[in-house]
Design a protein that fits this description.
The protein is built from two helices and 23 strands. The chain is mainly beta and 287 residues long. The strands form four sheets. Strands 2, 5, 7, 8, 10, 11, 13, 15, 17, 19, 20, 22 and 23 form a 13-stranded mixed sheet that branches. A four-stranded antiparallel sheet has the order 3-4-9-12, with no helix packed on it. Strands 14-16-21-18 form a four-stranded antiparallel sheet, with no helix packed on it.
Length: 287
């Protein structure tokens, strides 16, 4: 995975000058929380940080550890880091279902910064939903911060469970408003999650790309690539501030039980977590 946008804050180490140091911290910093979590799900809690892993996210019992460090700042333009960087271990572990990572520290204009699918992602609010263990931090949005991407349609739910209660059927059209009028590559990541564990197969493909869906009928830009040659569902080369496209099932087909579709869209510099959409292919005649 591509590293987070970051700046290193190097501090002097007086113990080196004295010739005597305490044992160095492990990779990722100081451990402040851990728990063994299995297929039934569980929580890892430390200080103001909570990682809620849902049932079905892990196939085997795994020791999940949170480590903090002040050596790396992963803040993004308009979103200043607040507090330490939190590294989640085992690093790069993939989750079958998204886990809720919450920083409940009473910030004004809260946000969470994290890495996923090679993108540096902002989730507005105190909670981000993550499908891999990397690094994250609490952040504060500046008073004049304007998200690169505004999700116009369809309406997205805040959680996977809310999303599957109101699914769309067969296909849908996504409409976006962009803050940047210049032409750039807009990366689209649509991740299908079998929240109800009804389908028993991968809905996202077996390669590096998010191949549950494909994009078609793009307006306000042109389709530059798809999941076959990138880690994303698709990349659109924008030509204005209004972009829309059809979303059609690819690997996520034959779904008579709704799944939750996680939506992350942005550029190589900054992306945004929009929320979740319920989706099925309406094979049941009662639809």
């Amino acid at each position: 995975m591509a590293p987070l946008a970051r700046s290193l804050r190097l501090a002097l180490a007086p113990c080196l000058l004295a010739g005597a140091c305490s044992e160095p911290l492990p990779e990722g910093g100081e451990s402040f929380a851990s728990a063994v979590v299995g297929p039934d799900g569980g929580q890892v809690v430390g200080d103001s940080v909570t990682l809620d892993i849902p049932p079905g996210a892990l196939s085997t019992e795994t020791t999940i550890e949170l480590r903090r460090s002040d050596e790396v700042d992963i803040g993004l333009p308009g979103y200043a880091q607040s507090g330490s960087t939190v590294s989640l271990f085992p690093q790069d572990l993939q989750l079958e279902l998204p886990a809720a990572l919450t920083f409940a520290d009473g910030r004004d204009r809260p946000a969470v910064i994290f890495e996923q699918d090679g993108l540096d992602v902002v989730a507005l609010g105190q909670t981000a939903y993550i499908n891999e263990l990397t690094r994250a931090a609490a952040a504060v949005a500046s008073a004049d911060a304007e998200p690169l991407v505004t999700f116009v349609a369809p309406v997205l739910a805040a959680t996977p469970d809310q999303a599957i209660a109101m699914p769309v059927h067969d296909t849908f059209r996504m409409e976006l408003s962009l803050a940047d009028p210049s032409s750039f590559n807009l990366d689209v990541v649509l991740s299908a999650y079998d929240v109800q564990r009804a389908h028993g197969r991968s809905l996202r493909g077996t390669g590096e790309g998010e191949c549950g869906f494909r994009l078609a009928q793009v307006t306000g830009g042109s389709l530059r690539s798809d999941c076959s040659d990138s880690p994303f569902t698709g990349t659109v080369r924008t030509s204005g501030t209004e972009v829309s496209f059809d979303v059609q099932p690819f690997q996520a087909d034959g779904l008579d039980v709704p799944v939750a579709v996680g939506v992350i869209i942005g550029s190589s510099e900054i992306a945004f977590q929009g929320g979740f959409l319920g989706f099925d292919t309406c094979t049941d005649t009662g639809c």
